[in-house]
UniProtKB/TrEMBL annotation:
InterPro entries reported in the protein's UniProt record: 6-hairpin_glycosidase_sf (IPR008928), 6hp_glycosidase-like_sf (IPR012341), AGE/CE (IPR010819)
One Pfam match: GlcNAc_2-epim
Entry keyword set: Isomerase
Listed name of the protein: AGE family epimerase/isomerase
Source organism per UniProt: Pseudomonas promysalinigenes
Family to which this protein belongs: Belongs to the N-acylglucosamine 2-epimerase family.
SUPFAM superfamilies in the record: Six-hairpin glycosidases
Length: 415
């Protein structure tokens, strides 16, 4: 474990807090160039939109979420960007004929209805509503209705994965990734709507995917299931580097789940509901397994993207979002347990990001490194994502509950 920490010696140091805020502003400034008439698109490594670039619902939802939070922090100009995102999600990115959301404006090139995508629309709507963004309450009501009407399966206690545009052809697949982001969105929905039912739904998802399946697999997250929630361990073995459904186990998701379990535990307690002991036990187990099995496993520092079921590296690239989640999770575990080892890991992760991911010449962070920790773009070209890195800069200074946007509205002093 490398304990060289270039941005402050302690998670709670004023110098480190100031660095986090400054880096957040730098990321926001870079991301503003992604704005298009119909939402937000993907930026290349230089921070430019490609000729003829199209808005994407995933980018638009994530940017709207981030800009809404930035507005509550008092960052100039971010309210207008959040309003633009909400308007796009209510307009060209919405399927006004059959309900739900497309992946691109007016359904060009894709018309499937994806749980993963709708989870981010819910997150964006929740954050924008908390921030008082125009149109956000309408968007919030619309996405709640769609999730409850189409995706939420009460019998299974989780989301169905996807449907055809007209909601007639459900996919015979269940995914941990979409349900993980639904868990995040449900925590936000509970705060934005005031309805604690969303916390119980989040708990049911976590119990199925983590307490039942991941615990039995040595705290490795099983990503793919059939329609009856039976594991598909060899799913996508022929396409192991898929960005949303990779083969094997994804250590970054173990880290992300660990943090979400702590937020869920804290949110349940804040709402006066019972929080089972396994939430903390599984959070610690997931973090420990990811660090033990995936950090530097191939002889180079950093987390590999995926492992097979014998814990051997499959895709050795390092992705920025994994390391951003590692920082946020280590901070959350330190807040929850006060164990020094989590602060040491936090320092280690930030040192790695500072050395390898932060691009001080062209802006933002490199999104991908090769197996030797050099900037690459094989899996994830360009710099389209603000969400993971920006959250990693916010979460260390916030309590574990309420959820992110609500916590910012309560605890962050506007400047």
């Amino acid at each position: 474990m490398n304990l060289d920490f270039p941005v402050g010696s302690c998670l709670d140091s004023p110098a480190h807090a100031a660095w986090l805020r400054q880096e957040g502003r730098r990321l926001l400034d870079f991301a503003k160039a992604s704005r298009l008439p119909e939402g937000f698109g993907s930026l290349d490594a230089e921070g430019r939109l490609a000729p003829g670039a199209s808005a994407q619902t995933l980018n638009t939802a994530r940017m709207t979420h981030c800009f809404a939070i930035a507005h509550m922090q008092g960052e100039p100009g971010c309210l207008a960007d959040a309003e633009h995102g909400v308007a796009a999600l209510l307009g060209p990115l919405r399927d006004h004929e059959h309900d739900g959301w497309f992946g691109h404006p007016y359904g060009h090139n894709d018309d499937a209805k994806l749980a993963y995508l709708h989870a981010f629309v819910a997150l964006a709507a929740s954050s924008a509503a908390v921030a008082g963004v125009a149109g956000a309450r309408q968007l919030l009501g619309d996405v709640v209705r769609v999730i409850e009407g189409y995706f939420w399966c009460e019998a299974q206690g989780a989301l169905d994965e996807s449907f055809s545009r007209t909601w007639q052809l459900p996919e015979p697949y269940r995914g941990a990734n979409s349900n993980m982001h639904a868990t995040e969105a449900f925590l936000a929905l509970a705060d934005a709507t005031g309805d604690p039912l969303w916390l119980q739904r989040a708990l049911r998802i976590a119990e199925r995917i983590i307490h039942v399946h991941a615990t039995a697999s040595g705290y490795r997250v099983i990503e793919h299931f059939d329609a009856s929630w039976q594991p598909l361990l060899h799913y996508n073995q022929a396409q192991p580097a898929d960005l949303f459904r990779p083969y094997g186990t994804t250590p970054g998701h173990a880290l992300e789940w660990a943090r979400l379990l702590l937020h869920l535990e804290a949110s349940l307690r804040l709402a006066g509901q019972g929080a089972p002991d396994w939430l903390l036990e599984c959070a610690c187990g997931l973090f420990d397994s990811a660090c033990r099995q995936a950090w530097g496993v191939d002889g180079e520092p950093g987390f590999v993207y995926t492992l097979d079921w014998d814990n051997r590296p499959v895709v050795r690239q390092r992705l920025h979002w994994v390391h951003a989640e590692a920082c946020a999770t280590a901070a959350a575990l330190w807040r929850r347990t006060a164990e020094a080892r989590y602060q040491q890991w936090y320092q280690c992760f930030w040192a790695f990001i500072d050395k390898h991911f932060i691009d001080r010449d062209r802006g933002s962070w490199h999104h991908e490194l090769d197996a030797s920790n050099n900037p690459a773009g094989t899996l994830w070209p360009g710099k389209p994502d603000l969400y993971h890195a920006y959250q990693a800069l916010l979460l260390p200074n916030l309590p574990l509950a309420p959820s992110l946007a609500t916590a910012v509205s309560h605890y962050v002093t506007k400047r």
